[in-house]
Amino acid sequence: MGALDLELTLPKAQEDGTVGKALIMLDIVAAANKPLRFNDILAHSPFPKATTYRFLQSMANQGMLAYDVDTQKYSLGMRLVRLAHKAWQQASLAPIAAPFLDQLASEIDKTIHLAQIENGQVLFIDKRRTTERFETLAQAGRIAPAHCTGVGKAMLAFLNSERKGFAMQRQNYIQFTPTTIHSVEALEQELKVIHQDGIAYDREEHESGIISIAAPILTSTQQVVGAISIATSTSRHSIDDLQQHRQQLLTTASQIGMEAEYWQFPCSTG
Asked: Do 113 and 78 fall within a single domain?
């Protein structure tokens, strides 16, 4: 898809008119994690060249995008960064979960991810990277599929019927690795097991060589507000090795859920 390989699912802009189209420009630039030339953006844009250019110019004029005249590249603007920071403070689970993530990170030598579900997709909102010498695709602010990630499956398994139905319809079932679940039937079966067990696993389903164990973050009314995972590399550990952290993971998820009980934040869509 174009010159860049972006892991990006774009919404239907026609449903939201001008605002929807403008936000798609932001989605494309943000997904690249680096400044983009116009042709790179155009390759991923669902709009004609003139429309794409017009929206990029408007977003740059408003400070939502920045344009470097010398490199002729677009990047996220400072106005957007300021808004994102405010949103992170007010609407993200990250601030309230931070001390619990810190405590867990001090106890185990693994990478920890915190995520929420938005529009059927996983939004990673915080991360603790330990001394392990590997990196995962899961970075704060990055979007990932729910059907093939530990945190995604943990949240899907505990969503109420309405939110779950909404989220399941938005899974694309792309097969990233040989072990990726790529059918509705197979995912439904695994979600039943996860709901009974309280734990989800990523068995190299999104990234080859990366495994994780995950738990949902629930309020006392069983509302899903997020999920937490412990991830590692298959070159160092196995799924069985991760089992030793099961209770620590569940305890941390429970602590965050209890703290979030009285925290007023927008309820994300499944």
From this structure: no
* Phi, psi dihedrals of residue 225, rounded to the nearest 5°: -115, -5
- Residue 16 above 80 pLDDT? no
As a whole number of angstroms, the distance between CA 226 and CA 154 comes to: 9
CA 52 and chain centroid, separation: 26
**What does pTM read for this prediction?**
0.69
pLDDT tens profile 227-270: 999 999 898 888 999 999 999 999 999 999 998 876 655 555 56
Looking at 61, 84, 107, the residue that finishes a domain is 84
**Is the pLDDT reported for residue 191 higher than 90?**
yes
CA 118 to chain centre: 8
Q: Which is nearest to 212 in space by CA: 167, 152, 164, 158?
A: 152
**Which of 180, 170, 150 minimizes the C-alpha distance to 246?**
150
Residue 156 and residue 60 share a domain: no
Dist. CA 18–CA 172, nearest whole Å: 26
Q: The tokens of 231 are what?
A: 């991830």
Give the residue numbers spanning the domain of 177: 92-260
Whether the Cβ atoms of residue 255 and residue 97 lie closer than 8 Å to each other: no
149 lies in the same domain as 43:
no
Kindly state whether residues 252 and 154 are assigned to the same domain: yes
Q: Which residue, of 34, 49, 84, is where some domain finishes?
A: 84
* Pairing mode of beta strands 73-76, 65-68: antiparallel
Q: Which pLDDT band, with edges at 50, 70 and 90, does 51 fall under?
A: very high
